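Quick question, first post here. What does this chain look like in 3D?
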Amino acid sequence: MSHGGHFLAGAYAIAALHNLANHGVQTGDAVFQMAPITEQNVSRFSAALSQEGWAGLDVHHLAESMRNGEHQFDPVRLLNLRDARQ
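> Answer (accepted):
Ran it through. C-alpha cells below.
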C-alpha cells in the first residue's frame, strides 16, 4: 500500500497560476489529503496518472473551485470529478 496525494501539488500550482494570470486572484494555501492506493484501486489511480489521464484534468474547473474558496484536494474526490466529466 502507498499513500497518494502529493502529485496534486502540481495540479494545484497550475490552477493557482491560471487564477493569477487570468483573474488576478492569488490563491491561499491548500490542504492535500492523502488516500491509500491499494491493490483494489491501483488501476484507477495508475490510469489517472498516466499521460492520457492527466489530459482529462480540467484546470479551469479546479481554478474556479479554488476561487470559490475550495482548498481541499482529495485524490479520490478529484478522480470522481474527472470520471463524472468523461
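The radius of gyration is 13 Å.
Residues 27 and 66 are 7 Å apart (CA to CA).
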